[in-house]
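Request:
You are asked to prepare a plain-text protein record giving the amino acid sequence and the backbone structure tokens, at your earliest convenience.
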Amino acid sequence: MKAFCLWPSKYTEYTVANTPYKKDILGELVKAYNAVGIDVHFYFSVLDWSHPDWRSSIKTQEDSIAFQRFLTFTDNQLKELATRYPTVKDFWFDGTWDASIKQKRLVDCTRGTYAERNASRCNYQQPIAGR
């Protein structure tokens, strides 16, 4: 899975800002949804196979160090989303079944934002039954 940001992320070259369109697609959607009272929830894939520090499993100290850099990258993107679009209610994570994500710490991506109210769903964890 190759990650592509529909917002102008400052953390990767795989972003809408580097396309001919250049506009903030997520920003336009969030603004339109907010204008008519529709809650916004973001989908975010925690797998980014195009990132050089992504590891599908952590087998060595080198893997662990690289994956920590990847988690910092992911933290930065999630914080970027949560602060750039403060009315977002929560995030739905895909790829949390991957072994490397299960082996590492949970990432609190919304501290100090509106979506922090849903922090239990904003961590790399299994979905909550019934939601």
